[in-house]
Amino acid sequence: MWEVFTCCSENPYQGMNNTQVYQYIVGGGRLHKPAVCPERIYVLMLECWQHVSLKVLLLFHLSN
């Protein structure tokens, strides 16, 4: 979804290698909210980007 709201005009994690991206994400880092992205959609993105947790597993279960 992030790419859709940036119209693919930005590269996620630009300037980072795979190890840096992993460390950034594990450390709680997330992509910024694109300017044209509604807040409620960005909140949904943040929820999807959570570490595997009961909440994520529940969402997965509900979608099946």
Keywords:
about 60 residues; mainly alpha; about 50% helix; flat
Please provide a written account of the structure.
- It is a single chain.
- This protein has one domain.
- 52% of the residues lie in helices and 0% in strands.
- It has helices spanning 2-5, 18-26, 39-48, 54-63.
- The two termini are 20 Å apart.
Task: Give the SSE map.
Elements: H1 2-5, H2 18-26, H3 39-48, H4 54-63
How many structural domains?
Answer: 1
- Continuous helix count: 4
Note the main sheet: none
Can you give the mean pLDDT? 85
Instruction: Kindly state the number of beta strands.
Output: 0
Report the β-strand fraction as a percent range.
Answer: under 5%
The secondary-structure element order is HHHH
- How does the overall form come out from the CA principal axes? flat
Given helix and strand content, the structural type is mainly alpha
> pLDDT below 50 for ≥5 consecutive residues: which ranges?
none
Computed over alpha carbons, the radius of gyration is: 13 Å
- How far apart are the first and last residues' alpha carbons, in Å? 20 Å
Q: Tell me the helix content.
A: 40-55%
Provide a concise account of the structure shown:
The protein is mainly alpha-helical. The protein is built from 4 helices and no strands.
